[in-house]
UniProtKB/TrEMBL annotation:
Organism: Streptomyces halstedii
InterPro entries: DUF742 (IPR007995)
Family annotation (PANTHER family): DUF742 DOMAIN-CONTAINING PROTEIN
Official protein name in the record: DUF742 domain-containing protein
Taxon lineage: Bacteria, Bacillati, Actinomycetota, Actinomycetes, Kitasatosporales
Superkingdom as given in the UniProt entry: Bacteria
Length: 117
């Protein structure tokens, strides 16, 4: 049986090693992942290697990694949590939403900038 175009040969649940919960505190799906300089050990799985390679050029969120790896976000959380616990990735919390801007402050700033001319 040949899978259709773009279909994975290995089911995503096998990437998690059959676990139903990550090995440590689960990361937020919007957490930003950053690769460390630590080399991966020889027995590291292919999906974990792909995740680290994906992060070599720079930081991405967990959901962005999931999209690039063509994995469900939940499975990517498992992979990333394991790699953070082993010191191969760093994770930082999601960037909080910007608050409401004080319009009067912006108007005073514009007046000040215009007066410089």
């Amino acid at each position: 049986m040949n899978p259709g175009p773009g279909r994975r040969l290995i089911p995503a649940y096998l990437v998690t090693g059959g676990r139903s919960a990550p090995s440590g505190p689960a990361l937020d799906r919007l957490a930003v992942l950053i690769r460390t300089d630590t080399d991966l050990p020889p027995g590291t799985g292919a999906e974990q290697r792909r995740l680290c390679e994906l992060l070599a050029p720079g930081a991405l969120t967990v959901v962005e990694c999931a999209a690039h790896l063509d994995l469900p976000a939940g499975a990517t959380v498992f992979l990333a949590t394991d790699l953070v616990a082993s010191g191969h990735l760093r994770a930082r919390p999601p960037i909080p939403r910007a608050g409401e801007i004080d319009r009067s402050l912006v108007e005073r700033l514009l007046v000040g900038l215009r007066s410089l001319h």
